[in-house]
Design a protein that fits this description.
This protein has 184 residues and is α+β, with helices and mostly antiparallel strands. It folds into two domains: 85 residues, 2-Layer Sandwich (Phosphorylase Kinase, domain 1); 85 residues. The protein is 28% helix and 31% strand. The strands form three sheets. It has a six-stranded antiparallel beta sheet with strand order 1-2-3-4-6-5, with helices on one face. The protein has a three-stranded antiparallel beta sheet with strand order 7-9-10. It has a two-stranded antiparallel ribbon with strand order 8-11. The longest helix is centred in the middle third of the chain and has 16 residues. The chain is globular. 27% of the residues are buried.
C-alpha cells in the first residue's frame, strides 16, 4: 500500500486491508518490524445498526471482553483524536474462509460455544459472524471488540450459527460479498 498512519505520535506502515466492517477499516500494519492491526473508525451509514461514540465503544467493549475471559487480541494503543486503534495481529485463518473452503469448523464450535457461555454469563453477546473469528494454532480468537447487551435473538444459537456452515444465509452473504468486490 505504501501509506502510513500515525497513532499517538507513532507511525505505522499500512501493508494491506484486512477488512471493512460496520465500525471501521482494519489494516495489517507494521511498526518497527512488528505486524499489528490498525483500525480506522469510519462514519459510513449502517442501515441496521445505530452507533454512539465508536472509539469509546471500542475501549469499553475491549474492557468488557477481557473481564469476561474472551480470547481476543491485546489492544496496544488507542488514539481518540484520530479515531484509531492498534491491536495485536492474530495470524491465522478466519472461520469465514474455513466455511467457504468447505473445511471442518466442528473443532471450533466447542470453543465458540464456550465463548458464548462466558459472554452470556456477564450479560453480553458477541458478533458471531465468522469473519470475526480467527483460528491460530488450534485456538479460536474473537478478533472484533464489538459486544452488545445480551439479547436471545442475537445469541450464538439463534443467530450466529447460521453462518458457521454452508447454509442459505451464509451463501446469500457470500454471493453479496463477491458481487460487491467485483464492483470495486
Amino acid at each position: 500500500m505504501g501509506e502510513t498512519r500515525t497513532v499517538n505520535g507513532k507511525e505505522y506502515e499500512l501493508l494491506r486491508l484486512l477488512g471493512h466492517g460496520k465500525g471501521g477499516y482494519s489494516y495489517l500494519a507494521l511498526r518497527e518490524g512488528r505486524p499489528v492491526v490498525l483500525k480506522q473508525i469510519h462514519h459510513e451509514p449502517c442501515a441496521y445498526y445505530t452507533f454512539g461514540n465508536k472509539i469509546e465503544a471500542e475501549r469499553r467493549d475491549y474492557t468488557r471482553l477481557k473481564a469476561a475471559g474472551i480470547r481476543i487480541p491485546e489492544m496496544l494503543d488507542i488514539d481518540a483524536e484520530t479515531e484509531r486503534i492498534v491491536k495485536e495481529y492474530i495470524e491465522g485463518t478466519s472461520v469465514f474462509e474455513l466455511v467457504c473452503d468447505r473445511k471442518l469448523t466442528a473443532p471450533y464450535l466447542a470453543q465458540v460455544r464456550q465463548m458464548a457461555e462466558q459472554a452470556k454469563a456477564v450479560g453480553l453477546n458477541l458478533d458471531y459472524f465468522p469473519t470475526n473469528f480467527i483460528v491460530r494454532d488450534g485456538l479460536l480468537y474473537y478478533v472484533d471488540y464489538e459486544c452488545n447487551d445480551y439479547m436471545d435473538e442475537w445469541s450464538l444459537e439463534n443467530w450466529g450459527l447460521q453462518y458457521w456452515s454452508r447454509t442459505p444465509a451464509f451463501e446469500a452473504y457470500r454471493k453479496q460479498r463477491e458481487e460487491s468486490e467485483e464492483q470495486i
